Amino acid sequence: MKKLFILIASIFLLACQSSTEPEEEEQQPDNSEVVPNISLNICSNGEGQWNLYDFYGAENGGEDHVIYLDLFASWCSICADAAPETQEIYEDFKDQGLVVVGAGSDLNQPYSCGGWANAFNLTYPILNDEISDNGPREMFDGSYPVSIVIGHDMKVVYKESGRHNDTAIRTAIESALENMKNAQ
């Protein structure tokens, strides 16, 4: 019985570690390629369709932005822990050229899209990434949550899977915003 308990505890710890610790290669993305456009329906805190390239100067007439994309699943407790941090990032950087957006999967398990936004007092747009064949879930594979910072040139400057590293995310955002200002 004791050996069975140790085995189960070891498997549980290994599973938790693999889903919460960022992988080394994800921390240093290949930022040589422009991210393809993402178009998803806004299911909370807005209406209509959200398009990544609406914030890309080369596509929208010259107005650049840095994007912070937070991928979550409604059943994910680590995602729930990260949602208030993402809201703080939104509040801290929204007037500096940062666009924050969440993209949810497995909605209604247990949170609906609106339920997710309400439960965590989120004011940034939440997208439905349930049925997309080419949405962020497919593009940015990883363990939930997945945090992505996309520079003004639409190249990934930071990607992390698992538990949020607030300091690393903020550093990547600050650097991307500075690069955007220098490019103008």
Which features does this protein show?
about 180 residues, Glutaredoxin, seven-stranded mixed β-sheet, 7 helices, 7 strands, globular
Task: Please explain how this structure is put together.
The protein is α/β, with parallel strands linked by helices and 184 residues long. It has one domain: Glutaredoxin, CATH 3.40.30.10. Helices cover 40% and strands 21% of the residues. The chain contains 7 helices and 7 strands. It has a 7-stranded mixed beta sheet. Strand 6 and strand 7 form a beta hairpin. The radius of gyration is 17 Å and the shape is globular. The chain starts with a helix and ends with a helix. Residues 1-28 have low confidence and may be disordered.
Please give a quick description of this structure.
40% of the residues lie in helices and 21% in strands.
Per-chain topology:
Elements: H1 2-20, H2 24-27, E1 39-44, E2 49-51, H3 57-60, E3 66-73, H4 77-93, E4 98-105, H5 113-119, E5 126-128, H6 136-139, E6 146-150, E7 156-161, H7 166-183
Parallel strand pairs: 3-4, 4-5
Antiparallel strand pairs: 1-2, 1-5, 3-6, 6-7
Q: State the separation between the terminal residues, measured CA to CA.
A: 66 Å
Structural class: alpha/beta
How much of the sequence lies in strands comes to: 15-25%
Radius of gyration: 17 Å
Determine the mean pLDDT: 82
Q: What's the architecture, going by CATH?
A: 3-Layer(aba) Sandwich
Assign a percent range to the helix content: 25-40%
And the CATH topology? Glutaredoxin
CATH C-level class is Alpha Beta
Into how many domains do the coordinates divide?
1
SSE order = HHEEHEHEHEHEEH
Major beta-sheet overview:
7 strands, mixed
- Widest beta sheet: strand line-up: 2-1-5-4-3-6-7
Number of DSSP strand runs: 7
Shape: globular
The CATH superfamily label reads: Glutaredoxin
Number of helices: 7
